[in-house]
Design brief:
single chain; alpha/beta; TIM Barrel; 7 helices; 12 strands
C-alpha cells in the first residue's frame, strides 16, 4: 500500500497450444483473454457448490496487518494477514462472531514471505516505491504465477479464512518493469476471483478504481485506500448499487473531513495509520 500508488477475477476456455514452450516475446504478444485459463490445481479441480460471504453495504470491519490482533472489537469482519495469523487465532475470531478476511499480496513479491523462493526471477520486476522488500510481478505469466497464488488461496482455506484481500491488483497503472495493459489486469483479477470462489472464499477488489465497472460482477465487495483524499470515491458506487459492501480507509484526513460523506454513500470507512495496527477511528461510531 503506497500512499499515491495504493495497494491493490469470465471463465476462460482451456486452450491447447501448438507449441509446448513460449518465448519471452510471445508473453508480450498473447491476447489477454488467452493468458489466464481455467486450471485444475488442488482444490480447484471441482467447483465449490456452497455459498461464500457476500457483505452488504454498511458492514462494519477492522483492518489490522501488524501487531497483536485485537479480538474484542464489536465489528462484523476483521481483515488480517494470511501468513502471520495462526489458524487458532482465526478460530478464536470465529468463536467471537467475526468474519475473517485474510490479506495476501497478488501483484508484488514480498521478500520476507515463506514462498519468496517460488517466484522465478523473470517474473519479478521493479521495486515498489516506498515499500522496502517489495517488487512488482509480471501478472501476464500465468505459467509461473498460477501455482503460487493458488497455494496461497489453498492456505486461506486450510486456515479457515472466510475471504481474501489480494493486494496490488492494479500494476498496469504503475511502473512495474513490464508492459502491462489494462486487459492484462482484468484477466488476472477475474482469474483470482474465480479461483477464490472455487474454494468457497469471498474476495474483495482492492483499489483498481478505473476497472470497477468491469470487475464488480466478479467480486463480492471492494476495499479502497484514500479515495476521499483524491476525490475519486464515486467510482466505487457500482458496488453499493449492486448491494455490495465498500470498505475503506483514509490515512491523512481527519474523520470530520470524510465521515459524513462516507456514511451518506453507505461506505464502511475508517481512519487508520499506514502501519495498520490496532488503532483506528470508525465513521459509523
Amino acid at each position: 500500500m503506497s500512499v499515491r500508488e495504493p495497494r491493490r477475477r469470465i471463465v476462460f476456455i482451456l486452450l491447447v497450444w501448438v507449441s509446448l514452450s513460449l518465448s519471452a516475446c510471445s508473453h508480450q504478444t498473447e491476447k489477454p483473454s488467452e493468458i489466464y485459463k481455467t486450471l485444475s490445481y488442488s482444490a480447484a479441480s471441482s467447483l465449490y457448490t456452497g455459498a461464500w460471504w457476500q457483505p452488504e453495504p454498511g458492514t462494519t470491519w477492522q483492518w489490522q496487518l501488524s501487531g497483536e490482533v485485537d479480538t474484542s472489537l464489536h465489528v462484523d469482519m476483521i481483515d488480517i494477514d494470511l501468513f502471520d495469523t495462526p489458524a487458532d487465532l482465526i478460530d478464536e475470531l470465529h468463536e467471537s462472531g467475526h468474519v475473517v478476511v485474510c490479506y495476501f499480496n497478488a501483484g508484488s513479491r514480498e521478500n520476507w514471505r515463506p514462498d519468496t523462493a517460488d517466484f522465478p526471477p523473470e517474473v519479478v520486476g521493479k521495486k515498489m516505491q516506498g515499500w522496502a522488500g517489495e517488487r512488482w510481478l509480471d501478472i501476464r505469466r500465468n505459467d509461473e504465477l498460477a501455482s503460487i497464488m493458488i497455494a496461497r488461496l489453498d492456505l486461506a482455506v486450510e486456515k479457515g479464512c472466510d475471504g481474501v484481500e489480494p493486494d496490488n491488483v492494479d500494476g498496469y497503472q504503475n511502473r512495474t518493469g513490464f508492459p502491462l495493459m489494462a486487459d492484462d489486469q482484468l484477466a488476472y483479477n477475474i482469474w483470482l476471483a474465480e479461483q477464490a470462489h472455487r474454494r468457497g472464499l469471498s474476495i474483495g477488489l482492492k483499489n483498481d478504481l478505473d476497472q470497477v465497472k468491469e470487475l464488480e460482477p466478479y467480486f463480492d465487495w471492494a476495499l479502497n485506500e484514500q479515495c476521499f483524499e483524491y476525490e475519486e470515491c464515486e467510482k466505487l458506487l457500482p458496488f453499493v448499487g449492486a448491494g455490495k459492501a465498500v470498505f475503506g480507509v483514509e490515512y491523512y484526513l481527519d474523520v470530520d473531513e470524510f465521515c459524513d460523506q462516507a456514511n451518506a454513500m453507505n461506505f464502511s470507512w475508517l481512519r487508520k495509520e499506514l502501519v495498520l495496527g490496532v488503532w483506528g477511528e470508525a465513521c459509523w461510531e
